[in-house]
Amino acid sequence: MKPISYTNLFEIRVRFADVDPMGVAYYAHYLRWFEIGRTEFLRQLGIPYKEVEKSGVSYPVTEVKVKYSAPVVYDELIKIRTWLGFIKKASLKMEYEIVNADTDEFHAEGYTIHAAVEGGGKIVRISDRLLSLLAE
Amino acid sequence: MKPISYTNLFEIRVRFADVDPMGVAYYAHYLRWFEIGRTEFLRQLGIPYKEVEKSGVSYPVTEVKVKYSAPVVYDELIKIRTWLGFIKKASLKMEYEIVNADTDEFHAEGYTIHAAVEGGGKIVRISDRLLSLLAE
Amino acid sequence: MKPISYTNLFEIRVRFADVDPMGVAYYAHYLRWFEIGRTEFLRQLGIPYKEVEKSGVSYPVTEVKVKYSAPVVYDELIKIRTWLGFIKKASLKMEYEIVNADTDEFHAEGYTIHAAVEGGGKIVRISDRLLSLLAE
Amino acid sequence: MKPISYTNLFEIRVRFADVDPMGVAYYAHYLRWFEIGRTEFLRQLGIPYKEVEKSGVSYPVTEVKVKYSAPVVYDELIKIRTWLGFIKKASLKMEYEIVNADTDEFHAEGYTIHAAVEGGGKIVRISDRLLSLLAE
Predict the structure, then answer these.
(1) Least CB-packed of A25, C3, D4, D109 within 10 Å?
(2) Exposed/middle/buried for D94, CB within 10 Å: 0-12, 13-18, 19+?
(3) Element holding D87 (H helix, E strand)
(4) How many beta carbons lie within 10 A of that of residue D125, not counting itself?
């Protein structure tokens, strides 16, 4: 199910802080990893999210889904795979996979959908710059 | 879309720790609220999750979905509504809504699906006690 | 070591999300509890922190210390005791104790020191209103 | 105030999840960074904490202190400096500094004190292997 388009890979280690009493990563931390994935995806494209926000438009998550297959354990080095699912006039979808960084063992997959929103909360069109960069 | 069956209500206040630079609750915190919701749902049924686990069977999340409608702000008192979506032989679904505790303004909805798993990670049948309590 | 002055008491339950693989609350969560303690301390005095910030002055933490005595376990109901340590022209100290809500078993104690800071980051005097309310 | 002894350096980026409504890293996240610092310090010495724990002795934090000098902002790349403060028969102290990874701008410093504890919670002597490795 690997995407044809551009995929960002980012490695991160699972910390004590992330792990629950069952010895595996708490299920909410995957959303933090997704955030890291899409931030690094944008950075690699040359558009740090910090700059995106300076344009006055932010991209809050309107929907998230995660399917957990195999638990991630303490001190494991994981790899976040991130790619663009779709991009429309006022929304975009990012897709993610969490795998072991060494063995590529599959742990989880998911997506986030984002709306383009102005400061006041009004939904707007995605900026042309972002559109053209992501559409490539 | 309110359930006919039993619904647990639990109020909690949004803290500085939960809020991101946009002044709204970070999207991963909703999963923490869902955890609180289903824990209190079980407690009100008379089966604290702590005891469920002592039986040797745990119920890890295999899937989660959240749809975010309106942002939750700092110091807001929210209400978590939790009910049982379905229960099968080896899995169950919990459903959630996040609303403002005073005005019932709708913020988000979502669900978690859980598998019944033994210590070793083997999928097992949901215990009869839990089944009968939840099936009521 | 209980204070003579006004003390706020606030109860909160320890969640799965807060607990590490050793089955006890992760050490950083105590700082979240301290935040909750001082926020509720201010609210009970009639000055929600939300309003304090609207005045243009915020009170970031410049120093924190925690001494951990006995671990806090999953699903435990704890009580946060919060009181004012000292208040000076441009800084104040809050003190905290974490105990079991039912048995008063002692878990941890600590403090935070806060500076009064304007939007731009300049250290300023604590507002007269806050001073007079806290000095009582 | 740099140590004469061995110092571990580890870089990490500040995420949206770490930042509060004031646009700066929430004060509890520094404790997570300290955890990362001491874990990487041990790994570089050839003793991953995962293995330390397998020996049946763990090293919970009994005391933590942080002094915050200058705020850490969103997307900043920080460097965690970690070194051994002292080691005694049943306790040890780790020291930390948080600085900007590019400019070395100083952000915060702190320490953690750890006790050697057996499974049951009994305080024990630090293992000879750890002692000899850290004493070098």
Answers:
(1) D4
(2) buried
(3) strand D77-87
(4) 11
A residues 93-132 lying closer than 8 A (beta carbon) to D? none
Count of other CB atoms within 10 angstroms of residue C6? 13
Domain boundaries, chain A: 7-135
D chain contacts of residue A74, beta-carbon cutoff 8 Å: 50
Q: Is A89:A125 a contact under the CB 8 Å cutoff?
A: yes
Q: How far apart are CA D16 and CA A39, in angstroms?
A: 9
Burial environment of residue C35 by CB neighbours within 10 A (0 to 12, 13 to 18, 19 or more): buried
Parallel/antiparallel/unpaired status of strands D57-58 and D91-100 = unpaired
Set of chain C residues whose Cβ sits within 8 Å of the Cβ of A23: 21
Pick the CATH number of D7-135 from 3.40.640.10, 3.90.180.10, 3.10.129.10, 3.30.1330.60: 3.10.129.10
DSSP string, B54-105: HTTEE--EEEEEEEE-S--BTT-EEEEEEEEEEE-SSEEEEEEEEEETTT--
- Could you write out the DSSP letters of every residue in chain C? ---SS-EEEEEEE--GGGB-TTSBB-TTHHHHHHHHHHHHHHHHTT--HHHHHHTTEE--EEEEEEEE-S--BTT-EEEEEEEEEEE-SSEEEEEEEEEETTT--EEEEEEEEEE-EETTS-B-PPPHHHHHHHH-
Instruction: Give CA separation, B134 vs B41, C97, D54, D88, in Å.
Output: 10, 39, 39, 53
Q: What is the CA radius of gyration of chain D?
A: 16
* Alpha carbon of D92: minimum distance to chain B alpha carbons (Å): 30
Residues 6 or more apart whose Cβ sits within 8 Å of residue D37: D8, D10, D80, D81, D82, D94, D96
Token pair listed for C51: 């309003």
Distance between CA D35 and CA D49 in Å, rounded? Answer: 11
- pLDDT digit string, tens, across residues B7-31: 999 999 999 999 988 889 999 999 9
Could you tell me which residues come within 8 angstroms of residue D80 by beta carbon, excluding any fewer than 6 positions away?
Answer: D8, D9, D10, D11, D12, D33, D34, D36, D37, D40, D96, D97, D98
pTM: 0.94
Beta-strand relationship, A7-13 and A106-115: unpaired
Q: Write out pLDDT tens, residues D38-83.
A: 999 999 988 888 888 888 888 999 999 999 999 999 999 999 999 9
- Tell me if ipTM is over 0.95: no
Is D17 within 8 Å of B17 when comparing Cβ atoms? no
d(CA C63, CA C121): 16
Looking at residue B83, its amino acid is W
Is residue D23 predicted with pLDDT exceeding 80? yes
